[in-house]
Amino acid sequence: MYQQMIFVNLPVVDVEASKKFFTELGYTINPQFTTDDCACVVISDTIIAMMLSKQRYADFTKKAIADATRTSEVLLCLSAESREKVDELVDRALAVGGSVGGETQDHGFMYGRSFDDLDGHTWEVVWMDPAAVQG
Known about the structure:
With 135 residues, this protein is α+β, with helices and mostly antiparallel strands. It has four helices and nine strands. Strands 5, 6, 7, 8 and 9 form a five-stranded mixed sheet that branches. A four-stranded mixed sheet has the order 1-4-3-2.
């Protein structure tokens, strides 16, 4: 059965620093699609984040490239299997150079935290009680 994938392309200042940051979060780098100006970060079988140098990113758009440390261009949200896994990933991100992206959200059935990566891109990590989404 076909599974649709998402490839998120993000401009970064330092590709090597981004590779280090995301591998320290537990993700892998696919060397087949990684070069000096691009890192292919494998988040899951269906989620790939492409960390592109700003010069390489500019090859794909005619628009100005947002400075994610000053403006918000996108909020990236990853699911987690438990509240503890939310805390584990966000705490790890903060320990390896990320910064707090927003306030903790705790609605009982849903729990989330966020971090900003080295380039200011906001990553939300959310757990939702499966019983809450089963109609």
